[in-house]
């Protein structure tokens, strides 16, 4: 077991921590010494119902393994609930260092079949929930002069999916929120980043696609190990730690692959206009020349194209990692992710 990253003395609040990715994050942060507030309403995949036993079951897993955790079953989209769960974390453990905004659910319909109620429900949980929890936690972190936020977006928010348009819009909103919190917190020792995870979870299984190459259902047994949620949790451990040097960054994570997700395309740059009689010449379309962004670009295939010189590193266990200059091969995130890779996974 690689224990290069420890979270002893840190307190984490994880929303949607009762199942899937959230549960995996909670167990891994606790295993590394963090005290955890496990928030989960216990609703179904599509937002239906409530079950307090979902959060309590994860708390039992953590405490049975020797960790410290408490359950919280409040709905995060209510501002008063968000403030209360932050108070509970501080009352129970004395501080709050880490917030992982993970809670969410899915409404799968073609674009024209999304109702206003569906859109409101998805924006409420994904965007407003992340906003209010982060706002309440930010106040505590500001006093501490330290904090770590991890927001959860999705390929539905960065690339789109015609069957989950409202979900994608909400996840796109999460990106904007994460970037703003990163800038607001930077002068105060507070960092915020986002992950775009892919894993074998009930939500991942429910995603529809029109591409036969992307149908995970046909290879579920094979992918269950490769897409273990713990691969995504490895990145969360790093982003939640003191060792984290990243801020204002989106990472695609899953299956042993971690990469910066920077969506950028071809653009146009104006030529310098010629001066005429001491004044600037008026520009026309002919004055613009095409340019290609120099940042890494995530393509539809999920592979990363590096137009500008980049680096590629590989750790001792055969873990392959694509990264740019801000993400060195020797980073603790590579060590952390390698813990879960039993066989080499090439990207």
Tally of strands? 16
Distance between the amino and carboxyl termini: 24 Å
Output the strand order for the largest sheet. Answer: 3-2-1-4-5-6-7-8
Mean pLDDT across the residues is 76
Descriptive account of the structure:
By secondary structure, this protein is an alpha/beta fold. 35% of the residues lie in helices and 19% in strands. The chain contains 10 helices and 16 strands. The strands form 5 sheets. The chain has an 8-stranded mixed beta sheet, with helices on both faces. Helix 9 runs antiparallel to helix 10. The protein is globular.
In short:
Helix content is 35%, strand content 19%. The chain has 347 residues and is an alpha/beta fold. The longest helix has 29 residues, at 116-144.
Topology:
Blueprint: E1 11-15, H1 20-31, E2 35-39, H2 53-64, E3 69-72, H3 79-93, E4 98-101, H4 116-144, E5 147-152, H5 155-158, H6 165-185, E6 190-197, H7 202-206, H8 220-226, H9 230-239, E7 250-254, E8 257-260, E9 266-270, E10 275-276, E11 279-280, E12 288-292, E13 297-298, E14 304-305, E15 311-314, E16 320-323, H10 332-338
Parallel strand pairs: 1-2, 1-4, 2-3, 4-5, 5-6, 6-7
Antiparallel strand pairs: 7-8, 9-12, 10-11, 13-14, 15-16
Task: Supply the key terms.
disordered C terminus; alpha/beta; single chain; 10 helices; 16 strands; 347 residues
């Amino acid at each position: 077991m690689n224990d290069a990253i420890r979270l002893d003395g840190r307190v984490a609040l994880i929303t949607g921590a009762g199942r899937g990715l959230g549960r995996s994050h909670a167990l891994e942060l606790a295993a590394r010494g963090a005290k955890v507030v496990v928030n989960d309403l216990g609703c179904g995949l599509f937002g239906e119902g409530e079950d307090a036993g979902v959060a309590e079951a994860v708390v039992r897993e953590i405490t049975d393994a020797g960790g410290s955790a408490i359950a919280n079953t409040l709905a995060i989209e209510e501002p008063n609930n968000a403030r209360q769960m932050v108070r509970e974390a501080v009352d129970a453990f004395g501080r709050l260092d880490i917030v992982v905004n993970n809670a969410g659910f899915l409404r799968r319909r073609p674009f024209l079949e999304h109702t206003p109620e569906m859109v409101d429900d998805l924006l409420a949980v994904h965007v407003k929930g992340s906003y209010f929890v982060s706002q309440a936690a930010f106040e505590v972190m500001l006093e501490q002069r330290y904090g770590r936020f991890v927001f959860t977006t999705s390929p539905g928010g960065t690339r789109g999916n015609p069957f989950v348009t409202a979900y994608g819009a909400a996840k796109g909103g999460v990106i904007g929120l994460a970037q703003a919190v990163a800038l607001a917190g930077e002068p105060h020792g507070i960092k915020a980043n986002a992950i775009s995870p892919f894993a074998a979870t009930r939500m991942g299984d429910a995603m529809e696609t029109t591409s036969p190459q992307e149908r995970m259902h046909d290879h579920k047994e094979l992918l269950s190990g490769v897409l273990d949620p713990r691969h995504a949790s490895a990145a969360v451990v790093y982003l939640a730690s003191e060792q984290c040097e990243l801020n204002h960054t989106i990472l695609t994570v899953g299956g042993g692959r971690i990469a910066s997700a920077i969506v950028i395309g071809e653009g146009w740059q104006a030529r310098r206009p010629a001066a005429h009689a001491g004044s600037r010449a008026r520009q026309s379309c002919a004055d613009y020349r095409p340019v290609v962004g120099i940042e890494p670009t995530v393509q539809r295939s999920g592979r990363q194209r590096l137009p500008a010189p980049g680096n590629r590193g590989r750790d001792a266990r055969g873990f392959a990692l694509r990264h740019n200059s801000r993400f060195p091969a020797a980073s603790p995130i590579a060590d952390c992710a390698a813990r879960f890779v039993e066989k080499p996974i090439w990207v």
